[in-house]
Amino acid sequence: MKSLVDIARPGTPLDVQRVREDFPILARQVHGRPLVYLDNAATTQKPRAVLDALSHYYTAINANVHRGVHLLSEEATAAYEGARATVQRFLHAADPREIIFTRNATEGINLVADSFGRLRVREGDEILISWMEHHSNIVPWQMLCERTGAQLRVVPITEAGELDLDAFERLLTPRTRLLAVTHLSNALGTVNPIRTLVETAHRHDVAVLIDGAQAAYHLPVDVQALGCDFYVITGHKLYGPTGIGALYGRLAWLDAMPPYQGGGDMISSVTFEKTTYNAVPHKFEAGTPHIAGAVGLGAAIDYVQALGMDRIAAHERALLAYGTEALQTVPGLRLIGTAREKASILSFVMDGAHPHDIGTIVDRAGVAIRTGHHCAQPVMERFGVPATARASLALYNTREEIDALVRALRRVREVFA
Amino acid sequence: MSELSELYQEVILDHNRRPRNFHVPDGANRQAEGFNPLCGDRFTVYLRVEDEVIRDAGFQGSGCAISKASASLMTDLVKGRTLEEAERLFQQFHGMVTSSGDDVADIDALGKLAVFAGVREFPMRVKCASLAWHTLHAAMQPGSGRVSTE
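ok -> structure tokens follow
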């Protein structure tokens, strides 16, 4: 058997069959058939390295962090802060203090909406988002606008599912305080031109938050090269545990922003008269954090980095091209989201078959896909469909699995002929 | 695939392709909107009720094959029934699609609706089959409005 070093050698393509053995769940059968897991945009499966890291943490290290002087607390703190440094390197942030652990990407966005909002957003100001956002990058801003009297503005998208960049520029006004936009659309697969967006926004003195929930496990991410002010990720889509995510924020912003939640760990001293807040990142991490989750996320990042994000991206790019072509051989199937720059997502509708029925029929063939509005109802409305079926790829998927999906979709055609 | 054929029986596929009563009946005086936020299915059920009897029934909206066929068959079946009878049908239907046992007697009593018995094997789809019925149930209440499966 090849070692991880061998399969991770630069220049060689990803050895998918070998990699699949790292994911115990992929050996499962569903409805008596081998599992074909194509719902990765909802959550990815976990490699043994992550499961082992979680088990090892609770078996050998478990203690609270930043508190005890005893050995276990010291080791737990080292593991937790080590995970922070791992996330920092993964996102290419300049400083580990720029990484705040959160529950998920949603909490990262809520943190910024609340804290940045209190620092910068006033009545009559504007927050700019796009038409292709997940509800988690819409609702926190609506809540901020409700609270402050600011206005929500929305960048429209084209028929292919790309941002309308001319409209974007026109929507930047002297009152715009923040642009919040996804790196990779979960409903369409569109990869947005983040550097261009950030450069333009910064020319107008507008801060930028990038929702990286989908992008971080498909594309190499360098927050300094992108130039964004905030970038949020979630662990469970990155082959890590649920309940852990991270927010990258520029140190200058994080220092200036007020705390999000109050509690233990986020203070340096408390009296009933006055509380002094802790320094970043701890200022934003009230209460005992999800230590095991952070450790698991660190292990997940170590795992994908050993494989190489570039090689993962190359594998998925080839698979997406194969899948795009294969799906279009199914009569009556129409892809929703045909941007030039795409990753991972194959969203589609079929004549005469509702996505929900498609989902049930392919499930019986062992193929797991998502059907529905994908928490992106404005996108569905934009394309005039109530819902779509969505196959989403990850590093362990194969051409054979795409073929299984296509066979199952032909069965859908038979039922609804 | 046998459970799939149980679910997608010809009757259901036919009512999906050609839904009956897919309109607003003349003189409709009761209505309710039903919504399944999980999958986006959304139907409005209309009734013309006179003297406690459903004289006419129809529906509008969009949804999957199961929910549309269910609404179609349901509106066919409740026409001419008293509100009380329709309510009893609702209870029986609900019992059929949610029960795990073999209520064969009940299924027989449901006549055409027995085609939905296969839904029991698909727990994620029970809400699809029952959406129209919950909506009917709401429409039969005085001052009827909107219902949600969540």
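Chain B has six helices and four strands.
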